[in-house]
Amino acid sequence: MSLLLTSLTAALCAAAAPPAPGLPSPPVDAASLVRDADRARGGLAEGITWTVEVTSTEDGSATTTAYLVRARGDDALAEVTAPAHAKGEKLLFSGGALWFIKPGLKKPVAVSTRQKLAGPAAAGDVASTNYARDYAAELVGEDDVGGAAAWRLELKATGPSATYDRIRYWVAKSGRQALKAEFLTVGGDVVKTATFEYDNKLTVAGKPLELISRMTITDAMGEGAVSVVRFGAPKAEAHPASIFTLESAVR
Amino acid sequence: MSEQPFLRLDQVHKRYRLGETVVHALRGVSFDLAQGAFTAVVGPSGSGKSTLLHLVGCLDEPDEGRVLLQGQDVARLSDDARSRLRNRHIGFIFQSFNLVPVLDVYENVELPLLINPDVGADERRERVLQAVRDVELEPQIHQLPDKLSGGQRQRVAIARALVTHPLLVVADEPTANLDSATTHRLIDLLLELNDKRRVTFLFSTHDEKLMGRVAHVLHLKDGALPS
Amino acid sequence: MKHGWRLAARNLGRNRRRNLATGASIALGFCGLVLIGGYAVRVERFLRTNTVYLQQVGHLAIYRDGGLERGVAQPARFALSADDQRRITSVLGGTPEVELVGRHLIGMGLAGNGCTTVPFSALGVEPEVQARVLAHPEVQAASPELARPLRGELLARYPNVAGAAALSAGLAELLGKTRIHDELAASPPNGSAALAPDCAVRTGGARADVDANVQLAALTWAGTMSAVDVEVVNLFHTPLAETEDGTLVTSLATLQQLYATDAVSYLSVYLRDARDAHRLAAALERAIDAAGVPVRVYPFDDERVGPYYAGTMPFLTSLVGFIGLLVAAVVVLSIVNAMTLSMLERTRELGMLRALGFSRGQVLGLCLREATLLAVMAVGVGLALALTIATMINHSGARFSPPGVPGSILFLLTPTPALCAALATLIVPLAAGAAWLAVRKKTRASVVGLLHEQVS
Fold first, then answer.
1. Most buried of the four, A48, C26, C271, C287, by CB within 10 Å?
2. For chain C, what is the total number of helices (H) and then of strands (E)?
C-alpha cells in the first residue's frame, strides 16, 4: 500500500520554487539536477491542476483510484473522483503534513511524516518525495538507463522528514529528468524501485515543459507488488493559498 | 558322644582387629552344654569371655570351628534367620542393662515380643505381666528406667530376656554394675528361674565370690580353656 | 511391625530440643514451599486468565493456515471469510467442551484527534461476547480488577453509541482524550467542538478533551484509504506495558467497516476446562480442515498466541523450582544431621535391638518411621503456618505489579489443596530418604560392633 501513496505523492508534491533552469555549468551541480528533476515530476511553484490515476496490483488484484489534483509549491489537494464510494475524499498536503479528509468523518486525520500508517508503510513515504528539500545529493557516476545517458546521484537524508536514508537516483543528462530511482534502507538493501516517463507537455510562464506522464513503482521486497501512476490533462493554474488550508478543505 | 548336646562349640577360633593389631580372642575353644545347665565363664579381662558369649548368643560367627545350637551350625544361617533365632530362643542380659530410656518397664519387657507374630496381643500381655512378676517389679511397671535403681534395671533386663521363653540366656557380666547384696539376690533369681523353667544359663563374671554358687564353671585364659 | 509407629513416636520424645529444631526446619521449609507454590499458582492463574480471557485469545485460537504469521501483512488472503466462519462455527457447535466462541478482527492504523495521530493496534470484538468473557468466574477469581475498565463501562453497555470504543489509557493520554463519553454527557464542556481544531496550539489535551470522538484511519484490505469515527466509552490498562500506548478495542462491526470486509482474523474458543486445550486443538484442527477450511488451532500456551504466558511460565517454574530445591536441600541436610547425631547416641541401643532379634530391615524401618513421623507432624505445623500467613497476606490488600504489566493486581497467595498435598507427598518421602541416608550404614554394621562401639 505504501506504493500507492508514494506514487500518489510523486504526483502531488510540489517542489519548493526551484531556480530558473539555466544551463548546467561544469562541473555539474548535483543539487540543481535534483531541483530540475523535481520540477519535471510536477513540483511547480506556479501551480498546476491535473488528473492522477493510481493502479495498484497486489496479491493478484488491481485497484484503481482517480484523483483531481491541484498543487502549488509545497502544497497539494487531491480529491477522489473514482471509485464512486470514495468520491469526495480528500488528501491535503499542507506545511509538510498530510491530512485525510472524508465526508461525514467528524475530523480530518493527520498523518504526520514520521508515523507508520499501516504495516511497513510510513507516512513519510507520502510527504517527503520532495527530494531537493529532504536530501543532500552527490554526483557519483554516469550510467546508461534504457539507452539514455544519465548522471547517477546518491541522495542522503538531511532531515527527519526524509522517508529513506538513501536514494539512488538517475537523472538524464539531456532534459535533466529523473529516469529511475532506487529506495534504500540503512543497510543498503533496495526496498523499491521507480521508473519515470515524460509524455505530458505544458507551457509554464511561457516556456514549454515536459512533464511526468507515468511512474511505475515496483516493490523490491515481498511479492513484487506494482503500482502504475498515470498523470493526465495538466493545466497551469495559479491556485490561491487559501484552498490548501484545512478549514477550506473540510468544507 | 552319640547324643546331640544342647550347645556344642567345636574348635572355635575368633580373631578381630584392634587398630593395627590382630587379637586372637579365642584359640580353639571346645565344650558342650546340656539343656538346663547353669554355667559361668570366668577369667581375667581380655581372656575372651565376651567374644565367647557373642558366639554362643549367635551375635557373631567364628572364624574357624563350629557353634552348634541343638545340632544346627549357626554360621550357616542368614542374618535374618539368626535374628529370628535370637528373638525366639535366646535371651540377652547386658552388663549395662541396655534398656530403652523412653519406654517404661512394661514396654521394655514387651519389646522382643513385638516382633514375634506368633504371639498375639493377649498372650503378649500375659507373658509381660508374668515376667515382671517373676522379677518382682510390679509396683514399678509403669516407671521409666531412669527412675529405677541399678538392681531394678537389671531385673527389667532379665524379665526382657525371659519374656520370650528362651532356651538359652546369655549374660555378659550381669552383676558388674551392682553392689554385692544386689548381686546375690540377682543370682538367686537366676538360679530360681533356671530351676523352674529349665532355661540354660551361660554368664560371664570375674567375681570370684559368685563361683561358689555355680555348679559349672568354664575357666577361660588367653582365649582357651585349659584342661 | 505394627508397633513400630508407637516406638518411633516414643523415640521422638528423646532429645526434644534437637527434634524440635529439626521439626521446625521441616515445618518452615514446608511453609515456604507452600507459600511460594501458592504464589506460583496465583501467577499462573493470573497469566492464564490474562491470555485466555482478557486478551481474548481464548483457550484455543483458530486462524486460517498461515493467518497468524501473515494475516497482518496480507489480511485479505489469510482472514476467515463469512463462509469460513459459518463452517467453523458449525463444527464448534458440535463440541460439548466449548463454552463460548468469539470472533475477532485485528488491524492497525492511525488514530487521530483532529490534530495529531498515534498509531494503533485494534482488536474488534463482539460486545456481547466480550461482556460474557470478562464476567467469567475465572476472570472474577483471578484478576477482576483488570477486567473492569479504569473508567466507563464495557462496549456492550453502549448499544446506541455509534462506534463505541475502548482505548488503552496510554493511547487516550497521547490523544488528549482525558474525558470519556459518560463524563462528557454528565458535564458538557463550554463551547462547541471545533470541526478542525486549532492545531497550532500544541497542548493537544486541552483542546481534544471537548469531545470523546477519535478518528481511525487505515488502508482497507483492498488498499484504499479509509476512516471511521469512534466514541471513547471506556479506558483500560493493557496486560502488557508495550501495548499500553496504542491499543484500542471496538466492535467487530466498526473495524469491519474500517477495513471494508466481512471477514475476521481469528476465532477465540473458550473451553469449560483449560486442561482440554491441547487435546481439542488437534481434534478441532482436523475436523475443521475436513469441513473445508484449512486452519491452525493454537492452544493459549502456544508462544505464538500467548507469548506472555509461554514466555513467563518457564521463568516462573525455574525460579520456583530453584527455591524449592534450596528448601528441599535444607530439609534433607537437617534430617541427615539430626538422624546422624541420633544414631551416634543410640548405637548401643541399635545393637541391643539387633540382639533382641530385630532384623536389619526392622531397625531401619524404625528409624525411617521416626523421620516420617517427625516430617508428618512438621508438615502439619508448616501447613497451618502457611495458611495463616496466606490468609493474613490475602486480607492485607497488598498489591503488586507483575513484570511487564501496567497497573497492579492484588497480591494473593492461593495454596490450593492439590498443591499442599503434592508438596507434602514430596517432603515426607524426602525426609524418610534423608533418614535412610543417615542410618543405612549403621544398620549394616555387625551386632557386636554396635554393642561395643564406644560412645563419647
1. C26
2. 18, 12
| Cβ atoms of A77 and A11 closer than 8 Å | no
Interface mutation vs chain A, best among C69, C72, C110, most A CBs within 10 Å: C110
Judgement on whether residues C221 and C143 belong to the same structural domain of the protein: yes
Residue C117, min C-alpha distance to chain A (Å): 6
- Element (H or E) spanning A6, and its range? helix A2-12
Within C25-97, strands assigned E span: 60-64
Strand-pair partners of A148: A145
Judge if C177 and C250 occupy the same domain. Answer: yes
Q: Which domains does chain B have, with CATH numbers?
A: 36-47+78-219 (3.40.50.300)
Beta-strand runs (E) in B6-45? 7-18, 21-33, 38-42
Residue C354 is assigned to a structural domain of this protein? yes
- The Cα–Cα gap between A225 and C357 comes to 92
Residue C299 and residue C327 share a domain: no
Neighbours of chain C (3+ CB pairs under 8 A): A, B
First vs last Cα of chain B: how many Å apart? 18
From A77, A19, A84, A79, select the one nearest A45 (Cα to Cα): A19
Last residue of a domain, one of C273, C305, C337: C305
Torsional sign, CA A179, A185, A190, A194: negative
Q: Are the C-beta atoms of A176 and A33 separated by less than 8 Å? A: yes
A64 within 8 A of A53, measured Cβ to Cβ: yes
Residue C304: alpha-carbon gap to chain centroid: 17
- C101 and C121 housed in the same domain: yes
What does DSSP assign to residue A67?
E
- Contact at CB, B59 and C356, closer than 8 angstroms: no
The number of C-alpha atoms within 13 Å of A227 and in the hemisphere containing its C-beta is 27
For helices C16-49 and C307-345, angle between their N-to-C axes, nearest 10 degrees: 170
Rounded Cα distance between C250 and C107, Å, is: 11
Looking at the structure, do residues C167 and C295 belong to the same domain, yes or no? yes
User: Does C27 share its domain with C81?
Assistant: no
- Tell me, which fold does domain A2-249 have in CATH? outer membrane lipoprotein receptor (LolB), chain A (2.50.20)
The count of other CB atoms within 10 Å of the CB of residue B116 is 16
Contact C146, C166 (CB under 8 A): no
Tell me the ipTM for this assembly.
0.92
What are A12's three cell numbers? 502531488
Q: Across the interface, which of C356, C360, C452 has its CB nearest the CB of B111?
A: C356
Subunits touching B (CB < 8 Å, at least 3 pairs)? Answer: C
User: How many domains would you assign to chain C?
Assistant: 2
Q: Taking Cα atoms as reference points, which of A228, A222, A214, A226 lies closest to residue A190? A: A222
Instruction: Say if C53 falls within a structural domain.
Output: no
A112 neighbourhood in chain C, CB within 8 Å: 116-117
- Which of C370, C448, C453 best probes binding to B when mutated, by most B CB atoms within 10 angstroms? C448
Q: Which domain holds residue C36?
A: 4-48+310-452
Handedness of CA C439, C444, C445, C447 (dihedral sign): positive
Considering C305, C336, C357, which residue would you say is the last residue of a domain? Answer: C305
Closest CA to C127 of C107, C149, C95: C149
